[in-house]
Amino acid sequence: MPAARDVSLIVSVARLYYDQGLSQSQIAAELNLSRSNVSRILSQAKERGIVEVIIHDPAGPPVRVASLEQQLQAAYGLGDVHVVAATRSSAPEMTARQGALVFTQRLAGVRRVGVSWGQAVQSVIDHLEQQRLRPVPELFPLVGGLSALDQLASGESVLRVLSAKLEARAHTLYAPAVLESAETVRSLRTESTIASVLEAAAAVELALVGIGSVGVHSSLHIVERMKLTDAEKRTFAKQHPVGDICARLVDADGRPVGAPAEDRVLAVTFAELRAIPEVVGVVFGVEKAPGVSGVLRSGALDTVVLDEHLARELLSTV
């Protein structure tokens, strides 16, 4: 049996058994150990946390990875973190299911709820059970629509489905999230029907949002729809945007990106988003890591739900 300090032997045995698929007898022969010693070493690997066994049950509740949650909390100064165990292919499903559980827990007693749009938000809402809440909440869009999104993940669709699930009244923002000029945004904000919805959205008690990464999926279309001039593109690039939340862009340190991008967006402001008592962010996919890292540093989220592969990618860069 190895000494307590002989971690390298434990790791070697664990890799041969779990990664390479060798039997305990084969490992014993290769390392000149007895088979009983190999068995004890594998047991010690589990006891010391060198090996973690996670069972992925597609029909069961999502399994959380506590060690990754604690590391993310420490690395980013986060509050409530939910990291779900999943294969890469099951990550969207498992993350959305956990997001639905978290969102349902947060709904109790809430009168005003805000939502953004996107695949993750839509998936969470799809996994919600039909509910009859008291008091009945009112639903508000935190951001205008984005026509480039799949119709099912657009802001209007998200509100419609959530309204049906919660038997709640939904208020609609009939305006795009991103416009080609700051003047148009300012003009729309003076329209009473738009101003009243955005004002109410800024006063919600609970928000469900997705997290974007510049150049990936819907975030790519956010920048494209701004129709920035060459000079504006240079100014934009100098701010080093990496991620977005409610179409509001941030840099790698979580600082909100200013003009010209900020002035082209019709949504709650970043300051208003930070002031919402409980903001739940849901995201999956390692390709979003740069943007997610920036958003996590912004202070906009109170709770984040993500998959273990994205969590590991985030931790590898801090």
Helix content range of the residues, please?
40-55%
Percentage beta strand: 5-15%
Q: What is the succession of H and E elements?
A: HHHHEHEHEHEHHEEHHEEHEHEH
Kindly, what is the distance between the CA atoms of the first and last residues, rounded to a whole number of angstroms?
36 Å
**DSSP strand count:** 10
If you average the pLDDT, what whole number results?
90
The global form is: elongated
- The total of helices stands at 14
CATH class of the largest domain, named Alpha Beta
Strand order of the largest sheet: 1-10-9-5-2-3-4
Oligomeric state of the chains in view? single chain
Question: How would you classify the helix and strand content by structural class?
Answer: alpha/beta
Overall number of domains: 2
Largest sheet: 7 strands, parallel
Rg is 23 Å
GO molecular function: carbohydrate binding; DNA binding; DNA-binding transcription factor activity
Protein name: Transcriptional regulator
Keywords: DNA-binding, Transcription, Transcription regulation
Family: Belongs to the SorC transcriptional regulatory family.
